[in-house]
Structures are given as C-alpha cells and as structure tokens.
Amino acid sequence: MNFELIITETRGRVGLITLNRPKALNALNDQVMDEIGAALDGFEADDGIGAIVITGSEKAFAAGADIGAMAEFSYMDAYKGDYITRNWERVKTCRKPIIAAVAGFALGGGCELAMMCDIIIAADSARFGQPEVKLGILPGAGGTQRLPRAVGKAKAMDLCLTARFMDAAEAEKAGLVSRVVPADKLVDEALAAAETIAGFSLPVVMMIKESVNRAFESSLNEGLLFERRVFHSAFALKDQKEGMAAFVEKRKPEFGHD
Ligand code: HXC
Fold first, then answer.
1. I need a labelling partner for 132 at 20 to 30 A (CA). Which of 91, 112, 161, 199 fits?
2. Which keywords are on file for this protein (predicted)?
3. Quick one: average pLDDT of 46-53?
C-alpha cells in the first residue's frame, strides 16, 4: 500500500502504521485519517495479520488535529463535514486489536487517536494532553469521554480544563497507558506485544476486544451476560479444541484462526 502521509509495513503477523507528517508533528487532517482508514481496511482484510500497531515519530505521536485546516471553519463547515469524526470512526470499528505506540506529543486529537486504540504503550518521552481549551474549542473525538473512563474524573477535568500535559510516568500511574518503555525500544516492544496477540486465535482475540469494550458501554450485569454468551460461543471454535488439546498434550498450540 502506498500512502503520502503514513507508512505501512507488515512485520510478521503485525500491520504497522507510522504517521509520517513530521513537519507538522503528525497533525491529523482528513488525508491522514483517510489513509489510516484505508490502511486499516487492508490489514483487516488480510488473514495473515492478527494485530496492528500505530506509531508516530520520536518527537510526536500526533500533536492534534490540524489547527490550520480548521481555523476558518464555520459552524456549518464543522457540522456538515462532520469534522473530524467522519473518518475517525474507522479506528473505532476495527475488529483486530490496535496498539498505539506513543513517543513525544500525543495532544488533542493525537491523544484521542491513541485512546481509540486498545492498548497504549508509551515511550518515557511521551506527553499526553487535551489542550483544546487554549484554542477556544473542546475535545471532539472522545477526549471528554474516553479520558475520564481511563484516568477518572479528577485527572480528566484537570487535563481538559488546564491544558497541562501529563508525562509517561503519570499516564501509567493513572491507567492511561499499559506500560512505559525506553524511547529507543518503543516500536520493538509494541511489535512484540502485537506479535504475541497475533499468535493467539484471531476469533478469540476479537471476542476479547469486543467483550472488554462492552464493559464501557453497558451495565455490569449486561456486560456479564454478553461475556457469558461470547464465552459459550468460543466452544464452537476449532481453536478452542486445539488450545485445550495442546495444553493436555503438553505442546504448543497451532491456532488456525477458526
Ligand atoms: C497543525 C501543528 C500542530 C497542529 C504542531 N504543528 N501542532 N500544525 N496542527 N495541531 C506544527 C507547528 O505549527 C509547526 O509548524 C510545527 O508543527 C512544529 O511545531 P512547534 O510549535 O514549532 O514545535 P514546539 O515548539 O516543539 O511545540 C510543540 C507543541 C506545539 C507543544 C506540540 O506545536 C503545540 O502546542 N501544538 C498544538 C497542540 C494542540 O493544541 N493540539 C490540539 C489541536 S486541536 P511550522 O510550519 O511553524 O514549523 C485538536 C482537536 C481535536 O486536536 C478535535 C477532534 C474532533
């Protein structure tokens, strides 16, 4: 796949997307998001891919939505174009797990993009923030909703209302990121985690992703019922037979992804 503002690669069973708009600190405009969407389409359709990593540069995962592109927007420009959510939905609807590997700035829409992913692995250089208030706007791609779910109301309010940045250590302590690694190991660590995931049964991995996400969209009881049904359905998979037979026979399972 050839793109202008992102680079896509296949590393083993992992699809790697690298945002590549360095002069604008990977600011996210329609073209970047369309290209991410097209790359995700390709990786989802590829049976050889079991997980996806999205990363940026050493300096910035993404410094936000492109401010220049929206500076002169009227209300109707934003409303009609459904800026910016139109082409961001694709990240949310991806069924294969996505890891955000974040170094440097993840601000505004950049932080929101990372939060749309399933796991955030941060370099020690990472800085997270929702500084939209400084621009006379508010977060518009999930910042006021996903951040409190990830870090709680106090820190979410603090970040959204004061525009201060949170470093990697604070983000890990707050529960926004799953691990912090040295910056020079970031992509390798993310690829290794993605490769581990891709080695498991793809349908089971997708069921886990769906079930964990359900925890944020339902009551506990509804979520437990959902999990129970999905759990039952796992017994229809050949991968379940293989996984359990391999354990009993003390060998490594060979998942066939069905
Ligand atoms: C467009 C951006 C940009 C952005 C940086 N650049 N962020 N361009 N949109 N979000 C550009 C700068 O204009 C500059 O271009 C180049 O990248 C380098 O940035 P500098 O500011 O010179 O770098 P530095 O001094 O290191 O400061 C880094 C920074 C700062 C702290 C990240 O750039 C910054 O505050 N950026 C804006 C962060 C922000 O407010 N994000 C939220 C955006 S609103 P030139 O051409 O001058 O070299 C948003 C809403 C989401 O995300 C809504 C979703 C629906």
1. 91
2. Fatty acid metabolism, Lipid metabolism, Lyase
3. 97
